[in-house]
Amino acid sequence: MNTPGNLKYNKSDEWVKVEGGIAIIGITDYAQEKLSDIVFGEIQVETGQLIEKGKEIASVESVKASADVTSPLSGKVLEINEKINASPELLNSDPYDQAWLIKLEISHPNELNDLMDSNAYMAYRKE
């Protein structure tokens, strides 16, 4: 399981990369591996939309399951990754680079304290 040390993670298998007051959000390598071959991805929020922590931001479907993706943080959607709708397989092949889902202007930085570092996430996933 690939869990880059520069990211934060939550228990529902989303990752967050923080750059200043901006959060880049995607699904973890663990999540894409469990889903298997992802054949559909749809981002369900729009640029400019205000979202709360825990709100559904995307849905993904694979040959064996479907899953809702929720936001680990509250904020304003700055950008969505249009590549996901056209090429959902990127979620399998490159979950931490090309397959980010949204970029969010963080509205409650204290919510970052609820996320795990890579070591804690790996320990959580081994349970």
3D architecture notes:
With 127 residues, the chain is α+β, with helices and mostly antiparallel strands. The chain has one domain: Beta Barrel (OB fold (Dihydrolipoamide Acetyltransferase, E2P)), CATH 2.40.50. It contains four helices and nine strands. It has helices at residues 29-35, 83-86, 90-93, 118-126; strands at 8-9, 14-19, 22-27, 38-43, 50-51, 56-62, 66-70, 75-80, 102-106. The strands form two sheets. It has a six-stranded antiparallel sheet. It has a three-stranded antiparallel sheet with strand order 4-6-7. Strand 6 (56-62) and strand 7 form a beta hairpin. The chain is globular. The model has no long low-confidence stretch (mean pLDDT 96).
Features of this protein?
4 helices, 19% helix, alpha+beta, 6-stranded antiparallel beta sheet, 127 residues, OB fold (Dihydrolipoamide Acetyltransferase, E2P), single chain
